[in-house]
TrEMBL record:
Top EC class, one word: transferase
Gene name for this UniProt entry: nadA
Lineage, top ranks: Bacteria, Pseudomonadati, Bacteroidota, Flavobacteriia, Flavobacteriales
Localization in the cell: Cytoplasm
Keywords in alphabetical order: 4Fe-4S, Cytoplasm, Iron, Iron-sulfur, Metal-binding, Pyridine nucleotide biosynthesis, Transferase
Native source organism of the sequence: Lutibacter flavus
InterPro entries membership: NadA, NadA_sf, Quinolinate_synth_type2
Similarity-based family: Belongs to the quinolinate synthase family. Type 2 subfamily.
Protein known as: Quinolinate synthase
Length: 345
């Protein structure tokens, strides 16, 4: 009898904690609940995924354990393509908010979970919709190409979405006589102007991770490692792209390391990519590019790393937090995303 009483009390306590966590989810961004030390997150996530017919999509910048348990790991383009074709009932997006939002726009009837709603993106934040709408009105004849790292509001103001994997192809698909606005990344935009020869109007946004690298320290490392190659993501600053042997998207960088004859690479992008690079190319020496400020982990995306195995487990278990997009906004944003998917086939 006493045992039953303790059991009921315990259950009531768990219920109250869950109710409280649900109430605070907007403020916290995730379900803030303690889990017993004995919980094996890997085992439980696998069980829940199967039971709920869920798919876990993870970006290359996620922590290693999340990449290892995901059903699919990819860059923004591959993840959007996967989200567009999955027959799972629930999509768990281990990435940042704009990625989960894109998955929701592509799957309005499905539940799209994000382990931490506050996992944002400095680049997406650098393009506020009201300011961008005004900029667009000042340039009414321009075709708007926006990087996928934008909010649904910006996608709704966009003609064609792109990622770093397909940006060049998409710019080249636009008739030469049509002027172009490119948003929001000024570095990727400047790189595309160089690659395509198109004179585009650039929005002045940037990613804080890709602008944190120190060119002086990178060149010093390069000199200390004869035969090494500097490789960089096009969101990095122009002076770094100028000295890079290869510039490409996340998947482009992975492929380059696999196929290059060089042995050592100085990798200028978010450090999470090294996990997959090491798996794909175990014989290569990979050196993360150093950043200006030695006191910070600035080559780690703070937002990407907000997702943890515990948050992933709790969001799958309780199906919270989930991402919602206003249906009218979603319909408008879908047009520019679908144009990108069509042009990427
Ligand atoms: S690395 Fe930069 S662009 Fe990518 S999610 Fe983080 S802040 Fe955004």
């Amino acid at each position: 009898m006493f045992g039953i009483f303790i059991g009921l009390n315990q259950e009531r306590k768990i219920m109250t904690t869950l109710q409280l966590a649900k109430r605070n989810i907007k403020e916290k961004g995730f379900l803030d609940i303690e889990t017993p030390k004995s919980v094996d997150f890997v085992k439980e996530i696998k069980k829940l995924r199967k039971k709920k017919n869920a798919i876990i999509l993870a970006h290359y910048y996620q922590e290693d354990a999340i990449q290892d348990i995901a059903d699919f790991v990819g860059d923004s383009l591959a993840l959007a393509q996967k989200a567009a074709t999955t027959d799972a009932d629930i999509i768990v997006f281990a990435g940042v908010h704009f990625m989960a939002e894109t998955a929701k726009i592509l799957n309005p009837k499905k539940k799209v979970l994000l382990p931490d709603l506050k996992a944002g993106c400095s680049l997406a934040d650098s393009c506020p919709p009201a300011d961008f709408e005004a900029f667009k009105k000042e340039n009414p004849n321009h075709i708007v190409v926006s990087y996928v790292n934008t909010s649904a509001e910006i996608k709704a103001l966009t003609d064609i979405v792109c990622t770093s994997s397909n940006a060049e192809k998409i710019i080249n698909s636009i008739p030469k006589d049509r002027p172009i606005i490119f948003a929001p990344d000024r570095n990727l935009g400047a790189w595309l102007i160089k690659k395509t020869g198109r004179d585009m109007l650039l929005w002045d946004g940037a990613c804080m991770v890709h602008e944190a690298f120190s060119i002086d320290k990178i060149l010093k490392l390069y000199a200390e490692n004869p035969g090494s190659e500097i490789i960089a993501h096009p969101e990095s600053e122009a002076h770094l792209l100028k000295v890079a042997k290869y510039v490409g998207s996340t998947s482009g960088l992975l492929n380059y390391v696999k196929t290059s004859k060089a042995k050592t690479f100085i990798v200028a992008t978010e450090v999470g990519i090294l996990h997959k690079m090491r798996q794909d190319s175990p014989d290569k020496i990979l050196i993360p590019a150093p950043v200006e400020d030695d006191s910070c982990n600035c080559s780690e995306c703070f937002y990407m790393k907000m997702n943890t195995m515990k948050k992933l487990y709790l969001c799958l278990k309780h199906e919270l937090p989930h991402v919602e997009v206003d249906p009218e906004l979603s319909k408008k944003a879908l047009v520019s995303i679908e144009r990108m998917l069509e042009l990427s086939k």
